[in-house]
């Protein structure tokens, strides 16, 4: 399966807070890819303001969230620039910052994170959707 490493707290926000856009500086994955995508919580932590994250998004401290593991699956439904998103998919604008946006739906958290080494960009993980156990 395709997999994408995402820093916490954003990996958690995708699975638990309805973050339906993953923002990238260049076109993510292959712009034509649609389908299931594993979400990997990276080990690296962004510089952030925890109080602002909590107030703005209700996001807990990233230090308490799993890292260095696959934490869930989403479905990629589209990939486009922020400018195109504004006109074509305005329902996705809340989380959009661009310049490139990966549009996500149907987030499913795993019952238990799977330790895995992440990489920059998208990468393949030898797992199938049938092998995964999802949280209830």
From TrEMBL:
InterPro entries: PUA-like_sf. It comes from the Bacteria. This is Uncharacterized protein.
